[in-house]
Write a structure and sequence with these properties.
The protein is mainly alpha-helical. It is 83% helix and 0% strand.
Length: 69
């Protein structure tokens, strides 16, 4: 009788683990999509506010190497 209960408990644990894996995968995909949308809006807003389309890293490098006389 104990072996049957242990087997049933293991089956439910396996099903629960599988469902949690699916939920975590869906959450990760949604996070990647949202991060991509945020990056696109960041680029668009940067271009519209005359900050250029070259990205943040390029702007920082140009400021550090350019000297104003």
């Amino acid at each position: 009788m104990g072996a049957v209960c242990s087997c049933i408990a293991s089956i439910f644990q396996a099903i629960g683990s599988c469902l949690m894996g699916i939920v975590n995968a869906i959450g990760a995909v949604i996070m990647f999509i949202v991060d991509g949308i945020i990056a696109v809006f960041d680029i668009i807003i940067g271009c519209l506010t005359c900050q250029g389309c070259s990205g943040r890293g390029m702007r920082r490098r140009r400021r550090g190497t350019t000297s104003v006389v």
